[in-house]
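Risk mitigation, structural track. In case the binding assays with magnesium ion fail to produce interpretable data, a predicted complex structure has been prepared as a fallback.
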Amino acid sequence: MVKQDITSSNTELQLKNLTTLGEFVIRKQHEYPGATGDLSQIFGAIRLASKLVHREINKAGIADIVGAAGAENIQGEQQQKLDVYANEKFKAALAARGLVCGIASEEEEHFVEFTHDLSRGSKYVVLIDPVDGSSNIDVNVGVGTIFSIYKRVSPPDGPVTLDDFLQPGTEQVAAGYVIFGSSTMLVYTTGQGVNGFTFDPSIGVFYLSHENMRIPEDGHIYSVNEGNYVHFHQGVKKYIKYCQEIDESTNRPYTSRYIGSLVADFHRNLLKGGIYFYPSYANNPNGKLRLLYECNPMAFLAEQAGGRASNGSQRILELRPTELHQRTPLFVGSKNMVDDVEQHIAEHANS
Ligand code: AHM
Ligand code: MG
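Fallback model:
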């Protein structure tokens, strides 16, 4: 991983060597003869909306953006003002470029078709969680935007259909997240590795800061809401106990870290090695997280970085979606850790 230094006192000189997100996307596009530049434009829209959300998040506390918006989304969860704001900004930015024919969002019950002339015949659909972990906003903890891009499967001259959105994760053209943390970063993949860009708010530009990100095969961090422990199935309980046992050869006990913000937990584990999991529990056989706009994009990123993502027994990317807001258990992160948890689950499948 190449890290570029922007902390030098001679910042102007250093900046000359930095690659911006826009330059990087165009450079990649030139590596593929026949590429139309559509994806570059979609990234332009995501970049713009991310900057607006960054600005708003950084005003949280002094502007009227913190707290509940007074409505519930389709999942029956309180919508935060920022959820509503971010949803509108991403929708508007994606609609304005005319390359996307519709989006599906955690904040909308149904998919939204873009019907203006500009979008007619567009080839792509976007699925998005505009602000994941938004309940953390009020307490100044990192949150993120998660996105996933597919080519539509319906004829471009007809209406957008549900099938355009209900595609398995293996069909993703690109996916990524923006983490609004101690700094804002955009991390994405188009299936050619994972790259991360750090936002310089003073000039409003994302710079390539983490090139070709790789997740260590053996991590030492496990991230789960252990408050749900009593409700977990036996295999998951046994795995948590395994993480806590002493074994010098595997560097156990592991460290427990849980922010409660998928993007932030995933990002840390991507950099340091670890596993994030949200299993099924009690009366929630499918866990909490949504397959299409939370799990699939993270699974694509994890695999592209050398990691794995599973629902406990199957590869997340191969699950066949049947509903827009479908949930699935998720185990994602360092390859060997996901292997281990799957093994524990299989061993205790009948207990
Ligand atoms: P959200 O999309 O409503 O924000 O829910 C998803 C979030 C994840 O970011 C996070 O990992 C998880 O829910 C936390 O849930 P819990 O508080 O049950 O641990
Ligand atoms: Mg979410």
